[in-house]
């Protein structure tokens, strides 16, 4: 397990570095600041560890563990905030008369309250369980808090930037397109067909092949396990049943995911906003340049339905992926495309912009 965690950490670091190196926000100065923050984190952790191990509570392992968790959470949360301030130093300035949207922050707040409820449940369980089992809810609560504290800080700061950017775009767009209900419904159906052709579904034949591969691997592992025949049969059957459940769930999710996205698109506002900070369309806001996501390419297609295709590069934790977002061009609005090309070339000089 330790080797697996080490490999995961290495892959995450390598993936994050590769994404950051290609980001439009990359600079040697910012990179040196990030390296300095990491060195300060290491120094702080080492210093605090020495103080805890040699301090007044050195004879109480429980107190040492609790204090260590609290300190690590505080350091990680603070470091997350500092790193976001360094990498995403630009914050959209909202005019006093413009109302600030709270869409993205509300999503983070829901996760915050879910975390609070989970921690309260763990605390209640620790109070009522026998002494020999109190460690389990305390461990689970501490682990979730250690994981969610820095993550929620990062998500909230990012959500605030997204809300500010979206508010600025809606208040003062370069271009604002609106669609009739019939146009929007037709576009939603076209988007559904495009997503299905692009992503496809996990077919039952592919699922069966994957199940056979897993069965072969489990059987091979059973030969070298050293367990009895009955134990091997039980382990083999349990693992195979677990894989089958995963495949059934993946097939169900794949079949219904397109329909869910189609319904969300139908319910989204039938309009598109292009502005200095980003794009709001299809019910989603996409910033032009952010540390975790940026515009990579923008093109246009004149065949029906006329549309813009904007490709964003985003970081998903270990690797970077490309995401295409299509925007319907209303009839009679082709002249706006030339303006958008001019604005995007100035706003995103490192992106490939070819729309006219």
Number of strands: 9
Distance between the termini: 53 Å
- Mean pLDDT across all amino acids: 85
Shape: globular
Total helix count? 9
Low-confidence stretches: none
- Quickly count the domains: 3
Measured on Cα atoms, how large is the radius of gyration?
A: 25 Å
Largest sheet: 5 strands, mixed
Structural class: alpha+beta
Tell me the series of helices and strands, N- to C-terminal: HHHHHEHHHEEEEEEEHE
Give the helix level as a range of percent. Answer: 55-70%
**What percent of residues are in strands?**
5-15%
Q: Can you describe what's shown?
A:
The protein is α+β, with helices and mostly antiparallel strands and 356 residues long. It has three domains: 1-21 and 291-356, no CATH class; 22-170, no CATH class; 198-267. It has nine helices and nine strands. It has helices at residues 2-22, 28-54, 61-87, 103-128, 135-171, 181-199, 204-223, 229-267, 334-347; strands at 175-178, 271-274, 278-281, 284-287, 289-290, 293-301, 307-315, 320-328, 352-354. Strands 5, 6, 7, 8 and 9 form a five-stranded mixed beta sheet that branches. α2 (28-54) runs antiparallel to α3 (61-87) and α4 (103-128) packs antiparallel against α5 (135-171). The longest helix is centred in the last third of the chain and has 39 residues, at 229-267. It is globular. The model has no long low-confidence stretch (mean pLDDT 85).
Question: What is this entry, summarized?
Answer:
65% of the residues lie in helices and 13% in strands. It has nine helices and nine strands.
